[in-house]
């Protein structure tokens, strides 16, 4: 059995922002609702509505609500300082939250992360609750395996390696309630996100549009489920040669197809990046229409 945590937000509007602006916590969010459920990961609006309406005293879930199933946690740890990881850290289903300097709102820019991973480090089997500060920071190649964010703070993870050979892998897991960017790609190299679910987000992955030092960045999405509301799955800088490869992507709860699978920008080293074209072009956005299913 797994503990299903439903993270709900009233309304489906996601506020536009610059790629790395600070995030403010929205008001009037409903509390987390826990319900027993089978399975490791599912993102389904229909199931959420049915469970919410069936719970004693609970109102039906609003149209913009999101559902994220999170494995039942075995223990709870509050971090008051960033935990630095070298090698492999297997959390064994531990739920981590921030406290003290890592507590508070969790959405202001500049907050420090709960975890900082050295080059080559692995973080797996953990749940990041709220507040999660700035989530996870990878200083070089890293692997995040079965990591769940119940309520994304400033962002879920940032990838900062400077080598073109850096490889960042997010395998399994999921994230909910991201006002802005889930995975911030500021460094160089290749970021692969596979077998992942996101529910309520601005961008799933954003290649930094205004970093003082820019790199070419490659993004791969494989078997990803994204539940509305959301804005973009991937944002890349066409002028810097970024690429995004998408396959097996499913978008849920977006009948108007407002979520853009791949948005191109004109990246800058200062100021605001300008939006360019969107959609597959076989130059920067490397996928076919059939690689993304809306349902």
Tags for this model:
single chain; 295 residues; mainly beta; Pectate Lyase C-like; twelve-stranded parallel sheet; nine-stranded mixed sheet; 1 helix; 3% helix; 43% strand; globular; disordered N terminus
Which helices and strands, and how do they pair?
Elements: E1 2-6, E2 33-37, H1 45-54, E3 68-69, E4 75-79, E5 83-85, E6 88-98, E7 115-117, E8 121-128, E9 136-138, E10 142-149, E11 157-159, E12 167-171, E13 174-176, E14 181-185, E15 189-199, E16 203-207, E17 217-227, E18 232-237, E19 243-247, E20 249-252, E21 260-266, E22 274-278, E23 285-286, E24 292-294
Overall structural domain count: 1
In the CATH scheme, the class would be Mainly Beta
Work out the radius of gyration. Answer: 18 Å
CATH superfamily: Single-stranded right-handed beta-helix, Pectin lyase-like
Q: What is the number of E strands?
A: 24
State the helix count.
1
Principal-axes geometry comes out as globular
Largest sheet: number of strands, sense, barrel closure: 12 strands, parallel
β-sheet strand percentage: 35-45%
SSE string, helices as H and strands as E = EEHEEEEEEEEEEEEEEEEEEEEEE
State the end-to-end CA separation. 27 Å
Contiguous runs where pLDDT drops below 50 for at least 5 residues: 1-66
Classification by helices and strands = mainly beta
Helix content: under 10%
Description:
The structure is a single chain. This protein is mainly β and 295 residues long. The protein has a single domain (74-294), classed as Single-stranded right-handed beta-helix, Pectin lyase-like (Pectate Lyase C-like, 3 Solenoid). The protein contains 1 helix and 24 strands. A hairpin with a 7-residue loop joins β21 (260-266) and β22 (274-278). The longest helix has 10 residues, at 45-54. The radius of gyration is 18 Å and the shape is globular. The relative contact order is 0.13. Residues 1-66 have low confidence and may be disordered.
């Amino acid at each position: 059995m797994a503990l299903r945590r439903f993270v709900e937000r009233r309304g489906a509007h996601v506020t536009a922002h610059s790629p790395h602006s600070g995030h403010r916590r929205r008001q009037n969010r409903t509390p987390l609702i826990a319900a027993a459920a089978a399975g490791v990961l599912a993102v389904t609006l229909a199931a959420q509505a049915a469970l919410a309406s069936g719970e004693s005293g609970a109102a039906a879930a609003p149209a913009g609500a999101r559902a994220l199933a999170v494995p039942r946690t075995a223990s709870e740890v509050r971090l008051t300082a960033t935990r630095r990881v070298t090698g492999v850290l297997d959390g064994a289903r531990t739920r981590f939250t921030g406290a003290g300097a890592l507590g508070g709102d969790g959405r202001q820019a500049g907050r420090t992360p709960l975890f900082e991973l050295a080059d080559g480090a692995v973080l797996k089997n953990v749940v990041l609750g709220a507040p999660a500060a700035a989530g996870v920071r990878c200083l070089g190649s890293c692997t995040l395996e079965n990591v769940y964010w119940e309520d994304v703070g400033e962002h879920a993870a940032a990838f900062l390696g400077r080598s073109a050979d850096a490889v960042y892998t997010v395998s399994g897991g999921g994230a909910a309630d991201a006002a802005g960017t889930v995975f911030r790609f500021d460094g160089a190299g290749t970021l692969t996100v596979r077998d992942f679910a996101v529910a309520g987000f601005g961008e799933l992955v954003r290649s930094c549009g205004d970093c003082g030092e820019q790199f070419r960045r490659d993004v791969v999405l494989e078997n990803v489920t994204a539940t509305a509301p959301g804005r973009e799955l991937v944002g890349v800088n066409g002028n810097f040669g970024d690429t995004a490869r998408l396959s097996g992507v499913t978008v849920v709860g977006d009948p108007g197809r407002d979520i853009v699978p791949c948005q191109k920008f004109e990246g800058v080293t200062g100021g605001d990046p300008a939006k360019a074209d969107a959609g597959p072009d076989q130059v920067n956005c490397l996928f076919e229409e059939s690689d993304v299913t809306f349902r």
